[in-house]
Design goal:
Elements lengths: L4 H51 L5 E2 L2 E2 L3 H20 L3
Antiparallel strand pairs: 1-2
Helix pairs in contact: 1-2
Length: 92
């Protein structure tokens, strides 16, 4: 049983639209993954830039607890990197 030419054309167009939509979705998802990876790389660069400042910090506190240990200094660097990164992106 063959389809009428009009129905076959409609099915071909529907398939093409679905195929195009799938390609667009894949492209958008890949773009989102690339943007996330780029943002992660940028945050890493900011973190590495503020890490020496945090390691040399004297008399700093996080909340009410003083910064003394290496873990405290890394946490301070993370907080500074978050603030700097958000400032660069225009976020509060």
């Amino acid at each position: 049983m063959t389809l009428a030419p009009e129905i076959a054309d409609v099915e071909k167009r529907a398939y093409a639209r679905g195929y195009s939509a799938g390609c667009r979705r894949a492209r958008v998802e890949m773009d989102a993954k690339q943007r996330l990876a780029a943002a992660n790389r940028a945050w890493d660069r900011v973190f590495l830039a503020v890490l020496p400042v945090a390691m040399a910090a004297e008399g700093w506190t996080i909340g009410d607890s003083p910064v003394h240990s290496g873990e405290d200094r890394i946490r301070l660097a993370e907080l500074l990197a978050d603030r700097a990164f958000n400032h660069l992106r225009g976020l509060p």
